[in-house]
Give the backbone structure.
Amino acid sequence: MMSHIVEHLVSGLQNDLCMKKEESAARRKSEAQLYRLLAEMVETERKYVQDLEEACDYYLPLAGIVSHRQIQSLDRRQIKNKKRNLSQCSSVTTSCSSQESFTGLSLERGENISPAEVRCMVGNIEDIRDYHKKVMLPRMEKAAENAQLMRILFETEQSRLSRKYGRYCINSTRSSIIIDQNIKFFSLYQFNKGLMLRIDGMLIKPIQRLTRYHMFLSSLSKTCKELGYTEASHEYSAALESILSAANHTNTMMWIGKMENCPLDLSGQGQLLKQGNALVSGGKGRNGKRWSIGSQLPSSCFLILFQQSLVLCRTTENMAEPDSPSLVYSKHFCLNQVRVRDVVAEDLNTFEIHKLERTAVGMKKAEDEPVTRIECGSEEEKIEWVSAINDEVKDLKFFAKRLSREFSFS
């Protein structure tokens, strides 16, 4: 009887030891994964900065721009000569940075891609490179061993990430069109320079970067939770929320950048401030036809407010992405040439936009432009739109007056 009891106790102890060993091995594995994730996150950030520098070093000269790294490698005389060469560079058959000949890189149609097209294609990639090199990478290296610092990094940089990547993403469609139209030139240029990636492979990296942050922070939060590091898990989750907010903004900008028939450079209209559906009447559409006031029902419209303009669009069904309807440009107003009237008869949900024109005595309503009426879903919504538009109109007027004063004093 006693022997059976002893055997049972020994068997139980052995099972406990095996379980503890398994738990210990699983914990060591999770801890190793945590350190690997942090190290990989920092290392991929370094590699990302290197990729951005490579893209800038090889493609900015085609846009007539000398990169900072190239400038630092030259003495003052070389810089002076380089600037002179850049000002005289009218095409990219000659590299402005190295004076190498690209005679064999002309397109089949006998034309060359212009510096302006290259500038449009690369967007604000130089700004993104400088930002990650001087801000994100140094701060991430310091935050790698401190979850609180990682949370602070992404929370404080959320607005700048949204702004910089939003501007890059809204330009993505125009960039892709330029690449497709000149793919032979860029393929030959890639071969001539011995580059591993095609131009589209280089320029897609910023679009993918926020997704990489999402993956790392999500995994870090999950791993810390498994290890019982509750506070650290919450810190990484908070950082993840900031990245998700920035990614949501950039996705919206990417969607707006696909707008059809738009004559504006949307990446140059400033920050996206507000968007939403409304009913519009009056004014003229892209085809020159007037929207009606009174005699016919108002048309459904999608409004997009930037710092410098208000864009009116139609939406059409998108079979490929049912949740993201296609935007078709209808009309836009430059905010430095409009006046908003927020009281329209007895209709509390409607406001009017009057287009102005400059005269010898100042700005006045353009006689040949009909009034555009915008009907919102509620009075509160109308007040929000009117306030947002008027705030930007005031800011633009203030900025114009300040520039005028500075110009008069110079």
Notes: Residues 89-105, 290-295 have pLDDT under 50 and may be disordered.
